[in-house]
């Protein structure tokens, strides 16, 4: 299963006027995008809390054009459980806005660092959680992300430099992707990423880093890095290394080491993903099948009778909201 896809009438998502939206406060960000908590109230939409995304004042004309192209594309994208829903856009005058659903528990990165000590030496939950239960939760997240990426790839969308900061978690523990783009502007987006003073090299595929190519399976590589982030409980890949040092490791095929709690089969999947030959990387469809099999095996091992399989549309974990200040959308972590 790819996940629940809901078709919609064009009227369900609106081209909004600035008067329909009240901006409440700006969220922290460090890139070319600005994010606001806002409320939409229009003839078509009752008062709804949203995140308003816009291009910062430092953006170039090309970035402004691409933002408009992305907005026009994603407003007609079908709904999916693992994709942040776009509720409306405003393109009549600058600044342009995209209005997205508010997702309660913030980014996957924030969730990992909030719930687990970054050192990996101890678990920060009030009650100790076994590695087995942690892996069950993380694998459910991986399935969610894979379902979302499969949906995007089938709809001709891409997610350049996918990272745990570009994934949000709902109150019911469902992972949702945001900040993706249609194929026809993906290469421009990649070019902007590569031009950053400190690009997110650790999340980029070798063909993108070394020859500037961004192919269909470049997102597969980034997904493998996100898996590593999860099973390392929020650590940064290649932490402390410069972009040049990361590039040297990639040339020598010295990839991120197996995290201490990561099952061998999951790490083997990461190594399959990190194949320098793009055609030899598994597809998202194949990865979804593999990850669901891992997830069902984990659930069976936790279940006394061993008979129940997991419904792939049913979240394994419910997230507890401890601090609304952590519910933020932030741009790529290093620039």
UniProtKB/TrEMBL annotation:
Q: Which InterPro entries match?
A: Kinase-like_dom_sf, Prot_kinase_dom, RTK, Ser-Thr/Tyr_kinase_cat_dom
- Molecular function GO terms recorded: ATP binding; transmembrane receptor protein tyrosine kinase activity
Gene Ontology process terms (BP): cell surface receptor protein tyrosine kinase signaling pathway
Q: State the Gene3D superfamilies in the record.
A: Transferase(Phosphotransferase) domain 1
Which PANTHER family does the UniProt entry name for this protein? TYROSINE-PROTEIN KINASE RECEPTOR, TYROSINE-PROTEIN KINASE TRANSMEMBRANE RECEPTOR ROR
Organism equals Stichopus japonicus (Sea cucumber)
The record's Gene Ontology cellular component field reads: plasma membrane; receptor complex
Q: Where is the Protein kinase domain?
A: 1-295
Report the protein name in the record.
Answer: Protein kinase domain-containing protein
């Amino acid at each position: 299963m790819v996940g629940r896809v809901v078709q919609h009438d064009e009227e369900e998502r609106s081209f909004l006027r600035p008067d329909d939206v009240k901006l409440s406060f700006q969220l922290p960000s460090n890139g070319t995008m600005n994010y606001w908590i806002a409320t939409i109230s229009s003839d078509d939409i009752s008062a709804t809390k949203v995140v308003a995304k816009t291009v910062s004042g430092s953006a170039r004309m090309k970035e402004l054009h691409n933002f408009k192209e992305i907005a026009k594309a994603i407003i007609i994208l079908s709904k999916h459980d693992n994709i942040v829903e776009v509720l409306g856009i405003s393109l009549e005058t600058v600044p342009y806005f995209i209005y997205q659903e508010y997702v309660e528990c913030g980014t996957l990165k924030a969730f990992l660092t909030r719930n687990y000590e970054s050192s990996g030496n101890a678990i920060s939950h009030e009650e100790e959680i076994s590695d087995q239960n942690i892996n069950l939760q993380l694998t459910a997240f991986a399935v969610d992300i894979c379902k979302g990426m499969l949906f995007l790839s089938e709809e001709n969308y891409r997610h350049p430099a996918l990272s745990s900061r570009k994934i949000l978690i709902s109150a019911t523990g469902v992972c949702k992707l945001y900040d993706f783009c249609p194929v026809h502007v993906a290469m421009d987006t990649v070019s902007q990423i590569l031009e950053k003073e400190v690009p997110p090299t650790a999340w980029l595929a070798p063909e993108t880093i070394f020859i500037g190519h961004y192919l269909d399976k470049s997102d597969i590589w980034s997904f493998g890095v996100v898996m590593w982030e999860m099973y390392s409980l929020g650590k940064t890949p290649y932490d402390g290394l410069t972009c040049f040092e990361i590039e040297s490791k990639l040339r020598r095929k010295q990839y991120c080491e197996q995290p201490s709690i990561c099952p061998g089969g999951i790490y083997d999947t990461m190594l399959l993903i990190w194949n320098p030959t793009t055609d030899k990387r598994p597809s998202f469809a194949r990865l979804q099948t593999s990850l669901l099999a891992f997830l069902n095996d984990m659930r069976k091992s936790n279940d006394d009778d061993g008979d129940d399989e997991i419904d792939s549309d049913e979240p394994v974990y419910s997230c507890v909201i401890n601090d609304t200040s952590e519910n933020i959308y932030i741009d790529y972590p290093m620039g």
